Amino acid sequence: MSDYLQGLLLGLAYVAPIGMQNLFVINTAAAGTLRQAWLTAGTVIFFDITLALGCFWGIGLLLQRFFWLQMLMLLVGGLAVIRIGWGLACTQKVELIQTENRSWLQTAAAACAVTWFNPQAVIDGTLLLGAAQAACTSCGRYYFIAGVVSASCLWFMGLASAAHCIGGRLNSSILKYINRGCGIVLICYGLRLLWYFVALLR
Prior knowledge:
mainly alpha; 202 residues; 8 helices; single chain
């Protein structure tokens, strides 16, 4: 259960910062019906989970085979997670964007684009989840990634529902503090990865 909770917490800290995915969900949900909001959230969840699984298991196979790569990923991943967290913690302003009405196919294409064709999301996911893979025990990996998947489902469905209900009252100040809170969580997790790296060196 500990591995699941770690995956859930890290997954929430990973998806909650207000980036392209969240802005896409917020704007679509705020402007459309609740059904459209949930449909958009479900589409984003699908692409987010496939990206997370690709980052976790893809790099994970190499990490299981090469110990030096595992050590490198812990070091680089830990530093990268701290850098990402620091950037979020220092967030000054997050701007909402305007979206137009889309068909389901347009929504799916846009959700795919803001997830799989977002270089920063792919790089961050590889470093963050790859490093997490290196720090997990073999039996704990399944619980951990289950927590990450749960976090994606909970966050995007909750975000779409809240954005639909709140509508125009959601402003950049609220988004800024969401980012800062997530940044603090990521910094703590990055420090944990570095501690695990040092422990393996000893």
